[in-house]
């Protein structure tokens, strides 16, 4: 029998940990694993808020049965239909055939598409409420944070926001569930990485959701990934606020590809110049080694972005081109930009990096440096000047 964590009066954590999966969404590394969070309120009426990945449905259903202790499950609230949270709905419905599923109109189209479920549904709209007895729930729509059907559920009784993926982070819950029970330091960078990888494109919808929720008194945030936030609510909200406004910290990300080391020498010269001019936060990513997940995280984190590429088959180095497409897909805004490249017989990389900066509408802060073959003294000095220009621009923030 499971001893379940009680988040508030008769509000239980029934989520699970995934320490098996190597890549989230088959793309993003999970060195600390990931949790799939679900919450059960046992009141005069019983309600489950979101489910978990179907791979863990056996553990999940056992936790629910233990918490209900023979009672029926009256409601399932579906705040988000992504399979890592909605994957167990069909099995839950088989276990509790009379459960009424609560969602919005967009939820139900996906519910039918994924699970063939189109009966026993209760549609809610913005501001609709549900009384469970002691607990009073209100529903708020949060479309495109980060799917179109997303909504959040607010428990006015205990001032709990069940926030779907918002304020989520990579990382399993290793014993504790509430932030005050654990050392949360490693979650902050993982929260930024999660945001940049998953939510990054949708800054404007996140801002709208934050403005809407700012009117609520929130004492606890129950996300579908990572810790339950109570002691560190302000910091979690601040990270999502800054990320969604694309507000980078003072620092520079140097992203480069290099086949034989010549472009890398240029990157090293630029980094040394940045450091000599007072920039302490400098992150260098060799695209052939650094996973895109971490490159994106740092581009969201820091204000300055410097990209370098050799010319390859009259194009950008393929791994540079790949990361540029991922940055572009997230529509990262408000970055200071500089770039450099190298070639052996015909240069094309710098022209393409120029076009990329224009497409992103980033502010170019220095003349690009383009080296033919091995790094020469004058091009080395150009790299130093590029670093100086970026440092000077960052110091004006």
Automatic annotation (TrEMBL):
Cofactor(s) this protein requires: FMN
Limits of the Flavodoxin-like domain: 252-397
SMART domains: Lactamase_B
Single Gene Ontology MF annotation: FMN binding
CDD domains attached to this UniProt entry: flavodiiron_proteins_MBL-fold
Superkingdom of this protein's organism: Bacteria
Pfam families assigned to the protein according to its UniProt record, in alphabetical order: Flavodoxin_1, ODP
Record family assignment: In the N-terminal section; belongs to the zinc metallo-hydrolase group 3 family.
Full protein name: Flavorubredoxin
Protein species of origin: Parabacteroides chinchillae
Lineage: Bacteria, Pseudomonadati, Bacteroidota, Bacteroidia, Bacteroidales
């Amino acid at each position: 029998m499971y001893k379940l964590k009680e988040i508030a009066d008769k509000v239980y954590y029934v989520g699970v940990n995934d320490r098996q999966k190597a890549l989230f969404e088959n793309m993003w590394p999970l060195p600390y694993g990931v949790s799939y969070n679900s919450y059960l309120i046992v009141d005069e009426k019983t309600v489950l808020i979101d489910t978990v990945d179907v791979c863990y449905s056996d553990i999940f259903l056992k936790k629910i049965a233990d918490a209900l202790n023979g009672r029926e499950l009256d409601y399932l609230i579906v705040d988000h239909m992504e399979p890592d949270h909605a994957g167990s709905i069909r099995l839950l419905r088989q276990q509790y055939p009379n459960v009424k599923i609560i969602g919005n109109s967009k939820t139900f189209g996906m519910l039918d598409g994924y699970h063939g479920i189109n009966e026993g549904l209760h549609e809610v709209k913005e501001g609709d409420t549900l009384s469970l007895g002691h607990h009073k729930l209100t529903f708020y729509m949060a479309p495109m944070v980060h799917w179109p059907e997303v909504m959040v559920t607010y428990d006015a009784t205990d001032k709990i926001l069940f926030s779907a993926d918002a304020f989520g982070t990579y990382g399993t819950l290793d014993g504790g569930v509430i932030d005050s029970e654990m050392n949360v330091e490693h979650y902050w960078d993982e929260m930024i990485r999660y945001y940049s990888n998953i939510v990054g494109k949708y800054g404007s919808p996140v801002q709208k959701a934050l403005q809407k929720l700012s009117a609520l008194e929130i004492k606890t945030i129950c996300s579908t990934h990572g810790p339950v936030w109570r002691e560190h609510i302000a910091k979690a909200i601040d990270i999502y606020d800054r990320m969604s406004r694309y507000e980078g910290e003072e620092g520079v990300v140097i992203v480069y590809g290099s086949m034989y080391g010549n472009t890398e020498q240029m990157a090293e010269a630029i980094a040394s110049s940045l450091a000599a001019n007072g920039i302490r936060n400098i992150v260098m990513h060799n695209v052939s080694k650094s996973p895109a997940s971490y490159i994106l995280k740092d581009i969201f984190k820091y204000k300055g972005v410097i990209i370098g590429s050799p010319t390859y088959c009259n194009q950008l180095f393929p791994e540079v081109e790949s990361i540029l497409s991922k940055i572009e897909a997230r529509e990262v805004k408000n970055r200071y930009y500089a770039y450099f490249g190298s070639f052996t017989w015909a240069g094309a990389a710098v022209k393409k990096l120029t076009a990329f900066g224009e497409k992103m509408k980033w502010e170019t802060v220095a003349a690009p440096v383009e080296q033919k073959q091995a790094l020469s003294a004058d091009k080395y000095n150009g790299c130093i000047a590029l670093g100086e220009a970026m440092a000077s621009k960052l110091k004006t923030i």
